C-alpha cells in the first residue's frame, strides 16, 4: 500500500501533496474546535496504534505482502478528521525515518490511507448502521467499514499506478514511472485486498469497536454522531 519513490510522476504526486496538505489544514482546525481535552491522549494512542498494525505485514502468494492500516477504527472512535491527522503523522514518520513509502509519495500515501480510507470507512458505517442499535447490525457495519475503507484506499493507489503509462511516457512511448496500465494495476491491487487484507482490516475493526462498546461506549464518535442525527 505504501507507494515508494519512482512510481508516480510529478504530474501525480505534486497535486496530491497539495490536496493532502489542504486536508491536514482543515483537520487541524476541526480538531481544535471539536476535540475535547480529555480525548487528546487518544489521538496519540490512535497514531501509535496505526503505526503498530502497519508493521505486521501479511505475506501472500506472488512474493508480496500487505497490512492493515487502522484508519477505519480510528475514524469510528475519534472521527474521520482526527484519523486524517493520526494516520498522516504515522505515514510521514514512516517515510522519513523508516523509508517505508517514498518522500515524493507522502502526499499520495496520505491521500489514500489518511483521507480516502477514514472517510469511506466512516460513511460506510453510518450508512449501514443507520439509527439501529442492534448488535448484529452494528457488527456488520463495523466490518464493512474497515473492509470497504481499505479496499477503496487500495483501488485509489492502483488508479495512481495505472494512469502513469498514460500521462508520463518517454519519446519512445515507454512508461517513465509505474509501467502497468489500469487493466493490470487495479485488478492486482483489488483482488489481494478484497480476499485478504481488507478482511483482516474488517475483523480488526469489529474486534476493537466491540471492546469500546463494552468498556467505553461514550468515546465512540460514530455512535454519538448517529444518535445526534436521530434526535
Structure description:
By secondary structure, this protein is an all-alpha fold. It is built from nine helices and two strands, in the order ααββααααααα. The protein has helices at 10-34, 40-54, 71-78, 80-98, 106-129, 135-162, 164-167, 182-215, 221-230; strands at 58-60, 64-66. A hairpin with a 3-residue loop joins β1 and β2. The longest helix has 34 residues, at 182-215. The relative contact order is 0.16.
Quick overview of this protein structure:
Helix content is 72%, strand content 3%. With 231 residues, the chain is an all-alpha fold.
Descriptive keywords:
231 residues; mainly alpha; single chain
DSSP strand tally? 2
Range of helix content: over 70%
> Which of globular, elongated, flat, extended, rod-shaped describes the shape?
globular
Q: What separation lies between the terminal Cα atoms?
A: 39 Å
Provide the gyration radius in Å: 18 Å
| Sheet with the most strands: spatial strand order | 1-2
Structural class: mainly alpha
Number of helices: 9
Kindly report the CATH topology.
Answer: Arp2/3 complex 21 kDa subunit ARPC3
